[in-house]
């Protein structure tokens, strides 16, 4: 059973934004790195998450302007998270149950990564394919 820590080794470095950054600047960063969410850090401490969903539901639908709006005004401040030694299956269960697409990975009080639903599905599919290959080898041996 693969852990979140093992999955993080295959990911790019963590991207974050300050709560005082504009929503526009956060969107530019997300576009540059082709990601759907950012952790919001204040002096290295997790204070929220900012996602495309936050933007769509709290800016666009309310007719607000992203260049004049701080991330802190629309970020999700009640953040669920996983630990590095949690299982990928457990992470998938939490994401499914709580309807979230991104989870920060916390080690103590430090954010060490961010996993997306796509990362989790990819890891689970890879693990299932490994087991299928092992069973095929066993059957044909």
Topology:
Layout: H1 4-8, E1 16-17, H2 23-33, E2 37-42, E3 45-51, H3 52-58, H4 88-98, E4 102-107, E5 110-116, H5 117-140
Parallel strand pairs: 1-2
Antiparallel strand pairs: 2-3, 4-5
Helix pairs in contact: 4-5
Structure keywords:
5 strands; 3-stranded mixed sheet; alpha+beta; 141 residues; CBS-domain; two-stranded antiparallel sheet; 5 helices
Secondary-structure element series: HEHEEHHEEH
Number of strands: 5
Tally of separate helices: 5
The whole-angstrom Rg is 17 Å
**What's the CATH architecture?**
Roll
User: How far apart are the termini?
Assistant: 24 Å
Q: Let me know the largest β-sheet.
A: 3 strands, mixed
The CATH topology is given as CBS-domain
- Tell me the structural class: alpha+beta
Q: CATH homologous superfamily name?
A: CBS-domain
Q: What fraction strand?
A: 15-25%
Shape type? elongated
Q: Averaged pLDDT, please?
A: 92
């Amino acid at each position: 059973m693969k852990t979140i820590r093992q999955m993080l080794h295959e990911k790019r470095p963590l991207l974050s934004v300050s709560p005082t950054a504009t929503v526009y600047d956060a969107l530019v960063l997300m576009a540059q790195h082709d990601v759907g969410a950012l952790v919001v850090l204040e002096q290295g401490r997790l204070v929220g998450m900012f996602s495309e969903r936050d933007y769509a539901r709290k800016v666009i639908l309310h007719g607000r302007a992203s260049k004049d709006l701080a991330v802190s005004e629309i970020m999700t401040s009640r953040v669920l998270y996983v630990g590095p030694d949690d299982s990928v299956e457990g992470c998938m269960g939490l994401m499914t149950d709580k309807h979230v697409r991104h989870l920060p990975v916390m080690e103590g009080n430090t954010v060490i990564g961010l996993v997306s639903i796509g990362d989790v599905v990819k890891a689970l599919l890879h693990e299932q394919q490994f087991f299928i290959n092992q069973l095929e080898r066993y059957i044909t041996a």
